């Protein structure tokens, strides 16, 4: 019982500040749901194969163990079985090719540039944080820290948002499990993804590519608002951007 409690505590601590829970969260965007479905689709045949292989090994080990055989027993020596050899070559090949095709089609759908977006955000990774540049002029600086929550990346619900990823120094990887798969931000090369969050809320992620000493500080917080609250947030951000700086006092004559 104590061991179960310790395990639960360890798992819960992984989902705390600066971390992502190892238990896959409920997807809130269609591409997040697709990735979850792909994970399940790959896991099921993998588990079936694993159970089949392990069960076969256990059966052989237990059925033909030496203690059950007479002294001097030598098991039958079988050399070559064309049907069996063809089967254990073809079946794994078909399974692997099926998984590869399924995964490739999913990647093409979820990690390619889209053209029917309702808004676009450029996500730029740097050591150690993220900058989100909206097509309406808003800029969010999500500088990394472990002292508290970072500034959230805000989007409206039920809105198709095109994400364009860039890197300014080394490779970073933007990952919010409930929303999308890992997408690299590579210097000199743009990657793409998208999101369409279906409910109001806040979701956490982190940089998934070891990028330097401050890698662990690169938290990601995505906040989805309804359209009215989002429009008010945009107006507030634009007002801050265009606010005139306070004039500095003129130096007194000497």
Describe this structure as you would to a colleague.
This protein has helices at about 1-15, 30-65, 80-110, 225-240; strands at about 120-125, 130-135, 140-145, 155, 160-165, 170-175, 185, 190-195, 200-205, 220-225. The chain is an alpha+beta fold and about 250 residues long. The chain has a five-stranded mixed beta sheet with strand order 3-2-1-5-8. A hairpin with a 2-residue loop joins strand 1 (about 120-125) and strand 2. Helix 2 (about 30-65) runs antiparallel to helix 3 (about 80-110). The N and C termini lie far apart (about 80 Å). The model is unreliable at about 1-20 (pLDDT under 50).
Give the arrangement of secondary structure elements.
Blueprint (H helix, E strand, L loop, with lengths): L1 H13 L15 H34 L18 H29 L8 E8 L2 E6 L4 E5 L9 E4 L4 E7 L4 E4 L7 E3 L5 E5 L5 E7 L11 E7 L1 H16 L12
Parallel strand pairs: 1-5, 4-10
Antiparallel strand pairs: 1-2, 2-3, 5-8, 6-7, 6-9, 9-10
Helix pairs in contact: 2-3
Approximate strand percentage: 15-25%
Query: What separation lies between the terminal Cα atoms?
Result: 78 Å
Widest sheet, order of strands: 3-2-1-5-8
How many H/I helices?
A: 4
Radius of gyration: 27 Å
- Strand runs, count: 10
Query: Into which percent range does the helicity of residues fall?
Result: 25-40%
Low-confidence stretches: 1-19
Structural class: alpha+beta
The H/E string reads: HHHEEEEEEEEEEH
Mean pLDDT: 85
């Amino acid at each position: 019982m104590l061991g179960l409690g310790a395990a639960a505590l360890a798992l819960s601590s992984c989902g705390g500040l600066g971390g992502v829970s190892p238990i896959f969260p409920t997807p809130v965007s269609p591409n997040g749901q697709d990735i979850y479905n792909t994970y399940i689709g790959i896991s099921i045949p993998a588990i079936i194969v694993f159970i089949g292989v392990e069960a076969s090994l256990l059966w052989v080990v237990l059925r033909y163990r030496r203690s059950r055989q007479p002294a001097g027993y030598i098991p039958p020596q079988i050399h070559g079985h064309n049907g069996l050899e063809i089967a254990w070559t073809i079946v794994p090949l078909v399974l692997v090719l099926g998984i590869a095709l399924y995964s490739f089609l999913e990647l093409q759908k979820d990690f390619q540039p889209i053209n029917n977006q309702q808004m676009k955000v450029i996500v730029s990774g740097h050591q150690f944080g993220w900058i989100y540049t909206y097509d309406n002029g808003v800029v969010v600086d999500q500088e990394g820290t472990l002292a508290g929550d970072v500034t959230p990346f805000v989007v409206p619900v039920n809105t198709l948002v095109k994400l364009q990823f860039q890197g300014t120094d080394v490779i970073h990887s933007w990952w919010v499990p409930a929303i999308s798969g890992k997408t690299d931000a590579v210097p000199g090369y743009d990657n793409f993804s998208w999101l369409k969050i279906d409910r109001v809320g806040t979701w956490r992620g982190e940089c998934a590519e070891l990028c330097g000493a401050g890698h662990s500080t690169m938290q990601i917080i995505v906040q989805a608002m309804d359209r009215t609250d989002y429009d008010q947030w945009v107006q507030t951000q634009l007002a801050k951007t265009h606010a005139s700086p306070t004039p500095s006092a003129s130096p007194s004559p000497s």
